[in-house]
Design a protein that fits this description.
It comes from Aegilops tauschii subsp. strangulata. This protein is α/β, with parallel strands linked by helices. The protein has ten helices and 38 strands. β4 and β5 form a beta hairpin. The longest helix is centred in the first third of the chain and has 14 residues.
Length: 517
């Protein structure tokens, strides 16, 4: 969704509790919320687990700080699968005919992080993931796959393996992240700042049509954007305020005492938490032990650390004590003045000492902001799954590890194409698949050993493995899982079809989820 079209958001500064409100209705105008445009990434996907190709992209040059960063304990967290793919663990869902987790593992390998703990919810899913990793990354990575109870959340998963974490710092990556941002760069920033936590932030990706919307035509729609609001210091190194998109309504409130504590804060609504964090191990373990009810890293652990970083810290060397929410006694010169027109909320006398010093019992929450030319997307919805698949065989093809033809597509040599059938740019056909006569494939991924009849049209879709599509079928904006059969003249538009389902002859489905009972 275009950030310019998102819901209006304003910022209100509130007086400290117990104080008389001198100006209780200070509200930041909408045009002071920082937003940036970015180009649209296209995408779609399909396939079953296979060993990932050795990455063909050139190694990114790494800074001295990255090369000298001591090993971390990388931990990958894997959530339950989507509803349309209960037979496949989320980590093994095909993205451009490669399991999703292969993109994370390749990323860690490229940063020389080779001792990895992979945490999977559910015993059977852990068994399948472990079997695939042990065959695909033999002699490349040392991976321990740990099964944890389902539905305990990301924080619960870390709590379950807390005793396995022994390095000074822990790198936590969501198993559904597809990015070209090197974890080593985040780790170097984390160590350089001596932070308690460093979070990777990236530009909000532009998504295609919503799950329930048409992928073409007048009824095309996009989901309303729920913004994530972050507050940064003027150097854009420290995270001072964070509000999740699930908590953002029309107004976002920032207490005056917090602004007084830090002096100046830049508010951003165009950044996404990529679910890649570097934690100080001791700090992380303490929070998990003390806050036993916490289940989410993003919604609970990170906000707690951000709020508590100002607790009992000296303010700008003036002997002022700052509490958890930044309630301070400050000199008159630091009182909140008129709102700056440079997207800031306070005077320019930023108290850098508050965050830059290591004394005073405070800790630091830092950020690594990926440049806008970096790709960063999470496979956390059906729409995102489709988007990422299109991206990886489109504008982000450097992530796939494949070599593309002169027509900017990938057709395995074993594929058979009938007379007058066309496979357009940004498409992929895996081995053993067959197309009949007069077929058209556009911006789609076709998995292995699929049999496709004549006069079939497939657009903006993901077709997984061993799928049978009979004559005259039309598929648009849909995800078709393994072993599905589409009988003659079936039409799918913006649908998800579960594994093993049969779509009957001549049926027409729009914006539906089809699965066996």
């Amino acid at each position: 969704a275009n950030p310019e079209a998102s819901h209006p958001v304003s910022l209100s500064t509130l007086p400290p509790e117990g104080d008389e409100p001198q100006n209780p209705d200070l509200t930041l105008p909408v045009d002071l919320i920082r937003r940036r445009r970015r180009g649209r990434w296209t995408s779609r996907s399909s396939s079953s687990p296979e060993a990932p190709p050795r990455s063909s992209r050139p190694s990114s040059p790494r800074s001295t700080a990255e090369r000298d960063t001591p090993p971390l304990t990388p931990t990958t967290l894997i959530n339950p699968p989507f509803c349309f793919s209960q037979d496949v663990p989320k980590a093994l869902l095909p993205v451009a005919n490669r399991p999703a987790i292969s993109y994370v593992l390749d990323l860690l390998e490229s940063s020389d992080l080779k001792d990895i703990i992979v945490v999977v919810e559910g015993q059977e899913a852990a068994r399948l993931v472990g079997a695939w990793i042990s065959s695909a990354y033999l002699d490349r990575l040392v991976v321990e796959v740990v099964a944890v109870t389902e539905d305990i959340g990301t924080a619960g998963a870390l709590r379950a393996i807390s005793k396995r974490l022994v390095a000074n710092d822990v790198l936590v990556i969501s198993g559904d992240l597809v990015t070209d941002v090197l974890p080593g760069a985040v780790a170097a920033t984390h160590r350089r700042n001596g932070a308690a936590v460093t979070a990777l932030l990236c530009s909000v990706p532009v998504s295609g049509p919503s799950d329930a919307a048409s992928s073409g035509g007048k009824d095309k729609a996009k989901k309303p954007c729920r913004l994530n609001i972050v507050g940064l210091d003027i150097t854009r190194q420290f995270l001072l305020h964070v509000v999740s998109g699930t908590d953002v309504e029309k107004d976002v409130r920032v207490y005056k005492r917090k602004i007084r504590a830090v002096g100046q804060m830049e508010i951003r609504s165009d950044l996404m938490d990529a679910h890649l964090y570097a934690f100080n191990r001791t700090t992380l373990q303490d929070v998990l032990e003390q806050k036993e009810a916490y289940r989410s890293i993003r919604l609970e652990v990170l906000p707690y650390l951000v709020k508590s970083q100002l607790r009992s810290a000296p303010s700008g060397g003036e002997g002022t004590i700052v509490d958890e929410t930044g309630n301070v006694v400050v000199p008159p010169s630091s009182n909140l003045q008129c709102l700056s027109q440079h997207r800031a909320i306070a005077p320019s006398a930023f108290k850098q000492d508050l965050l830059a010093s290591s004394g005073g019992g405070t800790h630091r929450c830092c950020v690594y902001i990926a440049s806008k030319n970096k790709y960063c997307h999470r496979l956390n919805s059906i729409q995102a799954y489709c988007d990422i698949n299109r991206d990886v065989i489109g504008e982000a093809s450097h992530l796939s590890g494949y070599s593309f033809s002169s027509h900017n597509n990938i057709i395995h040599p074993s594929c058979v194409l009938g007379s007058k059938s066309t496979v357009g740019p940004q498409c992929m056909l895996a081995e053993g698949s067959q197309l009949g006569d007069k077929c058209g494939v556009k911006r789609s991924v076709i998995g292995r050993h699929c049999r496709i009849g004549s006069n079939v049209k497939i657009v903006n879709s993901v077709v997984m493995n061993h799928v049978v599509i009979e004559d005259g079928c039309h598929i648009q904006g849909s995800v078709v899982c393994n072993n599905v059969q589409l009988q003659e003249r079936a039409v799918l538009k913006d649908c998800q079809v579960g594994a093993g389902y049969t779509v009957t002859t001549g049926s027409d489905h729009k914006s539906e989820s089809l699965a066996r009972k």
